[in-house]
Amino acid sequence: MKKIQMVDLKSQYDKIATTVNASIQEVLDTNTYINGPQVHQFQKSLEEYLDVKHVIPCANGTDALQIAMMGLDLKPGDEVITADFTFAATVEVIALLQLTPVLVDVDMDNMNISIEGIKRAITPKTKAIVPVHLFGRAANMGAIMALAKEHNLYVIEDNAQAIGANCKFSDGTKKKAGTIGHVGSTSFFPSKNLGCYGDGGAIFTNDDALAHKLRGIVNHGMYERYHHDVVGVNSRLDSIQAAVLNAKLALLDQYNEARRTAAAKYNAAFSGHSNITIPEFDLNGDDHVFHQYTLRIINANRDGLMQYLLDKGIPCAIYYPIPLHSQKAYVDSRYKEDHFPVTNQLVKEVISLPMHTELDDEQIKFITDSVLEFLK
Ligand SMILES: *Cc1c(COP(=O)(O)O)cnc(C)c1O
Q1: Is 192 part of the annotated catalytic residue set?
Q2: Helix axis angle, 239-249 to 252-270, nearest 10°
Q3: 185, 68 in Cβ contact below 8 A?
Q4: Looking at the domain assignment, is residue 3 inside a domain?
Q5: Residues 192, 248, 328, 376: which is the catalytic one?
Q6: pTM for this one?
Q7: Which tens digits make up the pLDDT trace of 135-174?
Q8: Same structural domain, 168 and 314
Q9: Where in the sequence is the domain holding 245, given as residue range(s)?
Q10: Which of 85, 200, 343, 349 gives 20 to 30 Å between its CA and that of 318?
């Protein structure tokens, strides 16, 4: 059996090496390392793929979130609501811009931000909601957009984990995650569903004026050369990374389908087990692109299972072991433990198994057999 990896980027690369190498070689031959034609081409291709008017490439997913918020003219002290159960980057940029993060609990069934939690957290100072499409599953954007409209709030989607996922609305229409709020962001970190071979990110919006503003912010606040109209940053996607992304974007749907197929095989093995809650998803649907495959281990020794798997050479991980409201950098006397019952439970129960585009049946069987053996 091939060695099991949490994310197998090498096996994936081996299959696309010719295309990717040629794409990178083109950058080397023309030596247009910054703002080369590859960046522009990727921007256009991603706009088309996502069906969004504007993609603004930038240096990474954390910058993308920060720049998205800078574009919205939020003022220090404005409250921004986001999920307690996510990667720290989301809350980090809120705090960095001197906005006030307001963490709310998530829902048990989809691990995404709780609509009831958002409702309870809205105050006259609230200016924005940042839903995260966690682990690849689209958040409930219909309900979030309705709340935002009612309270006149911005919605900034952190789509670092769910590029390609669709959000389905009550009228049956679908839109790509990241393109529904006023602005969305993503990351092209190598292990993300659309990963480059270094750092990369992008911002999405359908708002022409906001897009113009964001294009200046990523480039030192310049709209005309050496005229700095706003305080900006230096955040660029370089041409070599864009060249990699051009080769991989064409394969994104196929890659996400491979992840769903692996998830369905895992689910089939674990379904009905009294100690395991599987991530339910619609096999024919596309609202979940499985950035992570995350189980809840109920009334059993989750940490023992993790050690057991690691000892057998099966990588696994806890995303995320500590709620954000308990992190030193983000403690706030307004938070009470009973505001976060679901997150507090999830951090003790979740375990993520290997998930990538190259898992084969032998590996999946070895992993599922090992989990079931431990929980016997
Ligand atoms: C990866 C990630 C980010 C940050 O992306 P980087 O490119 O690593 O800066 C932000 N939010 C979430 C939810 C992520 O998973």
Answers
A1: yes
A2: 60
A3: yes
A4: no
A5: 192
A6: 0.97
A7: 999 999 999 999 999 999 999 999 999 999 999 999 999 9
A8: no
A9: 9-249
A10: 200
